Amino acid sequence: MFENFGSNKKRKLENSAEKEQSKPWVEKYRPKNLDEVTAQDHAVTVLKKTLESANLSHMLFYGPPGTGKTSTILALTKELFGPELMKTRVLELNASDERGISIVREKIKNFARLTVSKPSKKDLENYPCPPYKIIILDEADSMTADAQSALRRTMETYSSVTRFCMICNYITRIIDPLASRCSKFRFKSLDSSNALERLQYVATQENVKYEDGTLEKILDISAGDLRRAITLLQSASKLIDYTGTGEVTIKQIEELAGVVPTTILKKMVSKIEAKDLTELTTYVNEFIKSGWSGVAIVGQLHDYYITNEDYDANFKNKLSLMLFDTDSKLTNGTNEHIQLLNLLVKISQIQ
Ligand SMILES: Nc1ncnc2c1ncn2[C@@H]1O[C@H](COP(=O)(O)OP(=O)(O)OP(=O)(O)O)[C@@H](O)[C@H]1O
Ligand SMILES: [Mg+2]
Fold this sequence. Notes:
CATH class of the largest domain: Alpha Beta
CATH topology of the largest domain: Rossmann fold
Shape: globular
CATH superfamily of the largest domain: P-loop containing nucleotide triphosphate hydrolases
Bound molecules: adenosine-5'-triphosphate, magnesium ion
C-alpha cells in the first residue's frame, strides 16, 4: 500500500515537472516576487514601502504591453497574502471577462462588500496579511465608460475592506474620476540594458546558445516589450532543432520576426538614391515577390532615415509625411505593391 502511495506521489511530481516544462517561457519566467521585476524601479520601490506598512491605496498601473504590470500586481498580492490566503482575498478580472455594467453591479460589488476572511496562524507568521481584499481589474481600458462610472461609488463605499488595482495600456481611456481616486504607477518600456539581463537569464536557464549580438537584435525588434522578446527567443530556440546549427543566429531572428534584413534595406536605399525609375520598379517587384511585408519596411525606412545624420531636417520632414501617408493607407488595406512603389519613387524625388 505504501509503495503505491509513493509511486503516486512520484508520478504527481513528474507531472508537475512536465507542466513546468511545457509552459510558454513568458509564464515560466514571470517574476515570482517584486525583486524579480526588472527596470520598473520607481514602481517597485514605492510598492515595497507599502509592503512594509501593508497600507495600500487604490492603484492604477499603466504603460505599454509586456513591461511587467500584471506580473507586478500578482507578485505583490502573493507577498502580501501568501499563496493560500490569496485565493479568498484577491479577485482578478481581465478583458476575457465581461466588461459591462452588470459585472460591476454583481460580481465586483458582491466581492467588495464581503468581510475579509481570517488568515491562518501560519500565514500570519509568514506574510503581512493586511485586513483588506484586493480586486485586480486587468486591461481596465476595455471597460465601458458606464461600467467605470458605476465603479466610483463601489470604490468609496467599501474602501475599508477592499482595494482596487486597475491596469491598462492607455491611461486616457480611464475616466478622470476613477483615475483621481488611485495612486498612479507608470511602467516604462524596458531599455535594452535591463531587458538584456533578463533575456540572458532566460537563455542560460533554457540552455539556448546564440550568436553574438542576437539578444540585442531581439530587443531591438521588440522595442521594450519583454514578453515579445522572450516569445521570440523561444520560437528561435525551437528552430535550432530543425536547422541543426546548434545556435540561434541574427538571420533566423530577422526571419522569424518578419523584419527586413539590413542588407536588403541598404540595397533599397541605394536604389532610391540612384533615382532610376525602371530599376526601382524591377526592384519593388522582386521585393514584394520575396514576401517581405510592406508595413514592416515602412517602419524600418523610418528608423533608418530619421536616425541618420547624413540627411537634413527638410528631407526628414517631407519623408515623415510620406511614410505616415503610406502607413495609414497600408493599414486601411490598400495594395502593398502600388503603395510601396509610389513611396519609393516619391522619396527619390525629394529635393
Ligand atoms: N519588468 C519585467 N521584469 C521581468 N519580466 C518581465 C517584465 N516585464 C515583462 N516581463 C516578462 O513578460 C511577461 C509579460 O509581462 P506582463 O504580463 O507583466 O506584462 P503587462 O505589462 O501586464 O503587459 P500587457 O499590458 O500586455 O498586459 C512576463 O511573464 C515576464 O516573463
Ligand atoms: Mg497584463
